[in-house]
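Deliverable D5.2: sample structural annotation.
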Amino acid sequence: MVAAIFVAVIVGFAIAYMILPRSTAIPRPAMPPDEFASRALAALSGGDREAFLSHVDVCEFMSRMDQTGLTRRDYREADRTKRQQMEASHREYLADVLFVRANMRKRFTLVNSEIGENSASFRIKPWITYGKRSYRRILVENRRGQWRISGLASPDF
């Protein structure tokens, strides 16, 4: 008798689980993307490496900015330990490349924006120097309910 009641309860929970609607909506970030981008650019301008890098999705940023595709493949094939080592190495690289005199003490302003549900692109002035190029767009994406910088676009050749 107890076993039959137990089975009936389990079957009831299984049916309820299958019938109840499931929400696949991506969590909405608390901060609007333009405010997020402004804060990140203020951290870059002020030289606050930790604050700026906390706004960056390092894996996506490096994969997007690497023209060869090797970084994307390396991240895809890496195990957890190797991935953490790569992210730490790339964080240091980004700090060295982005925190240069050309990006410091500038007053970055958002000129134009294209905001979607899960991504946004902001045109900025003055441009961001990354390596030997200057970029006029910053790309952000909604990652698990938080905005993250995923790359730069529109280089000045």
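Annotation notes: The longest strand covers residues 119-130. The chain has a mean pLDDT of 88.
The annotation will be released with the project's public dataset once the embargo ends.
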